[in-house]
Amino acid sequence: MSYYMSGSPTPYYGKTAPVQKGLLPSRTGHISDLCEEGVGLGVPILQYKRDFFFPGTATVSEEGRVGGGSAWKKFTMDLIDRRQGRLSTRIRMLSWAPQRIYNRVYKSRYGRRVLRLIESRLESLRPDYDPSVFFRVSSRGSVLASYMIDEEAGIINVTMDFSGVQRTGLQHIYVSNELGGNLFDVYTDSAGAVLQGDAIGAWDTICAAWAALHSPSKSVGFRVDIPESVQAFRGREIIGRDICWSGIIFMMPPSTTSLRYRITVIMNENRGD
Question: Where are the domains positioned within the chain?
Answer without folding.
Answer: 2-266
